[in-house]
Amino acid sequence: MVDHMRRCLELAAEALALKEVPVGCVFTVNGQIIAESKNSVNATHNPTRHAEINCIDQILEYCRLNNIDYKLYFKNVIVYVTVEPCIMCAAALNNLNIREVVYGCPNDRFGGNTVLDVSNFYEQNYILNGNLLADEAMMLLKEFYKGINPNAPESKVKKDKKV
Amino acid sequence: MEPPVKRNRIDDSINSITIKNQTGIDNLIDSIINSKNQPQIILGDEYYQTLPLIKVFIGHVKQPKDISKLFEILNDKLPLKHLLHLKRVRKKDILLSPVSFLNSDTQESIQEYIERNIPEIKDCFEYFREATVPLTPPLTRKQYMENLRHWSLNFHPNHYIETIMSDQPFKQSEARNHRIYMALTFEIVKWYFNIKSYEDILQSDFSAAVVVDPTINSVVTLAVDNRHEHPLQHPAMLAIDNVAKTQEGGVWKIDIDDTLKEDLKEKFKIQYGTRSGTAESPYLCTGYYVYLLREPCIMCSMGLVHARAKKIFFSLDTPLGGLKSKTKLQCIESLNHRFEVFTGFL
After folding, report:
1. How many other C-beta atoms can be found within 10 angstroms of the C-beta atom of residue B137?
2. Reported confidence tier of residue B110, pLDDT bands at 50, 70, 90
């Protein structure tokens, strides 16, 4: 478990180096990593390209190429991610019937459990566990928010600085 | 001469629903464009609910000349604190305190309380009674009017809220644009999924998205449901990615058919284009309006928050919807971006 989260932290650090919000994620089946990615919102100009969404895309492509029913495949997936999935990602992971999510630090801004408990809206839910290497994950976020988001418009940048 | 036939709205009667369901898709699209009804905003429940009530003690004053003195003494000794939306005095009645203010263990009456704590006014009242009054301030004129029978209230109408909640929140020309762009979503679904009637729409779960830059009244992008191929490719998610493509980004290689785009342009007299690449190049979906045939799911609703869309419009509710049916993401105060949501096209 800890090894998977360490890999997520490496991915998050890579994201930070690219001036992305530092979040890293791996999807595993039977303890093996089957997809890994990091946040790529600024690179793609698409605010939904979170690490989890990128991993889901990779697995869907893998299933498509290998004629695997993704619905069955996702049922065995355990997700490791450095920051609690946001409301959007939590809903996506619920839709796909993921088995379990393990996160690093909570997400006070958008968390799919902390800000709005998305599990209330679905009949089946994944198991959610948090606070694995939380300090490391949080350090990376703090590092990012010390700097500036290169894609945000001017006025917003100034506001962020004050906070 | 025959009396004019009044066309009912969909929810008016069972009969009109049956008729509506059999409506051909083209007639439905026409009626969306030509309807005189304007889209209606979806605000937080607090704007629609009847106000919660609270029990209070009222003292009936013997001498009207005592009222101003009582008013001052009571504001000092028994301030209303969280109930400042309630007027202190109505005719010869004075609001004293919430019933819950008295210690229920000692079973002290309001009369005993006053005799013990504010003896200087104990002889001013003819009698005491309990009344029920609103616990929270009215947010709308409707809530204000509904609650006046309980007690006199302080109310400062929010003019923006009153307008946006009215039957005519938009200028006529704006409202027509909203209806045309919504009609596009139906036309797209009709083209892709062989939809022939309103019934077909209701029996399916297909949806489509139209993103508009209202500052230049231009369609930025279109998207159609691809959920059956790819579980993330809901119209809103595709639309957000398509907008990214107009900003030198984007990930998914999927787009609306070019023939359809041309057909739509001709039939609905719309134009395509963005301000991307100009000095006013938008950031993500900032300032954009997003039209969806169906209420977006929770994933898409949050995607639209991340994308910073300005207004969202949809026609049909969905069971797992994130803007009306399951939750109202637009009402979560802690999110860093909020948009307005409208429905009511059918």
Report:
1. 18
2. very high
Which tokens hold the place of B320?
A: 């797992």
Neighbours of B262 (CB within 10 A): 11
Q: Which residues between 29 and 88 in chain B have a beta carbon less than 8 angstroms from any beta carbon of chain A?
A: none
**Chain A residues within 8 angstroms (CB to CB) of chain B:** 43-49, 53, 56-57, 60, 70, 86-89, 91-92, 95-96, 109-110, 115-116, 118, 121-122, 151-153
Choose among A88, A85, A92: nearest CA to A128: A85
Contact criterion met (CB below 8 Å) for B334 and A109: yes
Sheet holding A78-83, edge to edge: A32-38, A24-29, A78-83, A100-105, A127-129
Q: What is the pTM of this model?
A: 0.89
What residues of B are in contact with residue A57 (Cβ under 8 Å)?
Answer: 232, 251
- Residue A81's SS3 state is strand
What the block records as the tokens of A8 is 């997520």
- Sequence-distant (≥ 6) Cβ neighbours of residue B25 within 8 angstroms: B186, B190, B195, B196, B197, B198, B200, B201
pLDDT tens digits, one per residue of B69-79: 999 999 999 99
Is the Cβ–Cβ distance between B303 and B237 less than 8 Å? yes
- Split at pLDDT 50, 70, 90, the class of A146 is confident
Q: Measured between alpha carbons, how far is B21 from B36 in angstroms, rounded to an integer?
A: 20
Whole-complex ipTM? 0.91
Tell me the pLDDT band of B23, cut-offs 50, 70 and 90: confident
What are the pLDDT digits (tens) for B232-277?
999 999 999 999 999 999 999 999 999 999 999 999 999 999 998 8
Give the integer Cα–Cα distance in Å for B114 and B128: 11
